[in-house]
UniProtKB/TrEMBL annotation:
InterPro entries: Amidase (IPR000120), Amidase_dom (IPR023631), AS_sf (IPR036928). Belongs to the amidase family. GO terms for molecular function: catalytic activity. This is Amidase. Residues 14-433 form the Amidase domain. SUPFAM superfamilies: Amidase signature (AS) enzymes (SSF75304). Pfam families: Amidase. Gene3D superfamilies: Amidase signature (AS) domain.
Amino acid sequence: MLAAYASKDLSPVEVTEAMLSRIERVNPIINAFHYVQADTALDAARASESRWANGKPQGLLDGVPTAIKDVLMMKGLPIYRGSAANNAEELGPAESNAPCVERLIEHGAIILGKTTMCDHGMLASGYSSQFGTTRNPWNTSRNCGGSSSGSAAAVAAGIGPVTIGTDIVGSIRNPASFCGLTGHKPSYGRVPCYPQTSPSVCAGPIARDVTDAALLLNVLCLPDARDVSALKYEDVDYTAKLDGSLRGLRIGVLGGLGFGAPLQNAVRERFSAAVDVFAAAGAELVELTPPFDANDADCAERFYQVRSLAELEQLPPGIQARSPVINAWTEAARSYTAAMHYEDYLGTQALRQRLLEVINGFDFLILPTMPVLPYAADNPGLDDGDTFAPWSNTFPFNLTQQPAISVPCGWVENNLPVGLQIVGQRYDDVGVLCAARSFEIASGLPIRPIPEELDLS
């Protein structure tokens, strides 16, 4: 797109008009956007067109259409966090832009609107009590994942090439896997976040391929003094670091971590084929025993229940019930004591320590991003009702603060994608992106065209 702007084969106005037309046609089906700012986007596109005509583009993304996840502050607009319990009139509009939103504007990106998300960012699903169901563009009877549900569904449906996701338990990687996209959870602190609410939360790119994800990361990781937990800024061009090889890399292979949903056969087959790609490319592969037992994730689920309950309890009891799934999920936490919560915090730190020990001696770990295929579209979680189990392969790497990326590793029946997760040593975002790009090349898997006619079955 940027090359076409430079050669004047396309203009930002033409592209923005096409994106707005696409939203009008497909958003009633997939429900990726809850707010569209057509006039503002077209004004920004005209300004971008003028800059390109004068040979003076603004930054790295001038004229590139994108969208902002509901949870991210965008000046003048409310934040619902996907929940009907959060009333826009009571909350009021955001008074400033989130750091990553500010960076997009500074680099000339065209913001089409705001995308949907699940309730309170804690469901691996497109279910939302505020926005309704967001559907998977590849098969609208299936789930698009969450919590960055609308952001991933928009890119998969061809509404812009990149968006920003946020990730506290897997909310970039889960929808990227379910929607056949690339989603990178950076090292904690790599992308400045404000307000900063957790030592597990990150913002990062969702894109159609690794190169676009790396380009967006170049913008998102620029410094912002509001995040006191941010890493020291490193002037790295991630797109220039993508040349590399899998040969000689030592990689630990995990079919799962030992808890959560069992690995489905269709996912196992695609993951096994991905492992073969690494082997054929010359990587040294070591099959690892899952490091955890079935109940080891319980402390983490309780820990996050308390986090969500703390958010809910800022609201009157009757209003809390407007978010029925999260309200029911957090019910048990109402009887927890502060001491019990601290014990669960220590439990998450024990998980963190054990998992960091697993990667010792390896360049990367690889495992399925999601142990299951996309479940029914309207489900808040697994088809059996479990809402936390879908996070089993992703949330531990938020605790360890390691960079982790999900890339497509194949498709199965009913037009459903499968994602491969590549996890690196702490702070090695360059290595993770390079390994992902090398896998992308070595696998030979084509980037599928956007679904022109969405499946309505």
